[in-house]
Every structure is written in C-alpha cells, then in structure tokens.
Amino acid sequence: xxxxxxxxxxxxxxxxxxxxxxxxxxxxxxxxxxxxxxxxxxxxxxxxxxxxxxxxxxxxxxxxxxxxxxxxxxxxxxxxxxxxxxxxxxxxxxxxxxxxxxxxxxxxxxxxxxxxxxxxxxxxxxxxxxxxxxxxxxx
Length: 139
Prior knowledge:
The structure is a single chain. The protein has helices spanning 3-11, 22-27, 30-38, 44-50, 58-68, 88-98, 102-111, 114-124, 128-136. The protein is mainly alpha-helical and 139 residues long. The chain folds into two domains: 3-68, no CATH class; 88-136, no CATH class. The model has no long low-confidence stretch (mean pLDDT 92).
C-alpha cells in the first residue's frame, strides 16, 4: 500500500489497524503519514504532537490519527523538490574532465555556459548523438 492509501483509509474509509495484513502493517510508514498530513495547515499541530511517538509504535500512531482525523477526504498538495539533478552520464563526463567529484561537477554545470560544456564534450571526443542528448539537460 502507498502512503496515500493509508491516508485515505485514515480519513475517508476509517479502516481499523487490525483489518490490515502483516505485510500491509509493515508498509505503513509513520514518517510519510506525518509528512502528508502536515501539508494541510489544519493538521500541523496534530502531526507535531503525534510524531513525538516512537516510529516503531505504528499501531499507536495509526490509531491516534484514525480517532482524531475527521471523516472527510484530505487534499494536500504534495510539494516536490525543485532542485535540478543531472544524469549520471553528464556528471561523469564533467567530473572526468575537471578531475573532481560528481557533486562538484554539478556545480560546474550550473555556472558554465552551454557553449563551454559543448567545447568540453568536443575535447573529450564524445560523438554527436551523445553530445546532443547530454546538452538537452542543460538550460
């Protein structure tokens, strides 16, 4: 089960802990439940209190939420990371050229003009198809 299935079962279906199989109980991730519920302003204080319970107490955490959350659908916009990540191939080539880590290569990619990166690829002798693919990643 996904974290969103558990949230739906806590808020809409009001499914009790004992109705889950052992595998489903093991799938319950208290961290993700706290994270999803805390995205709704109404539940920030509640999740702050409940997350003080030990994460191993899955049944207790689940039942607290089950008994306190209202019986209505919950919509929380999931906020995704805005950090740009580059493909391992691109990072490998830049790291090889500058003889640095992939993390440092990522920083180089951010500050170098696209034309300079293309020149690096030419110096490395990359074929045109690969260069074109890798350059698409760069703004």
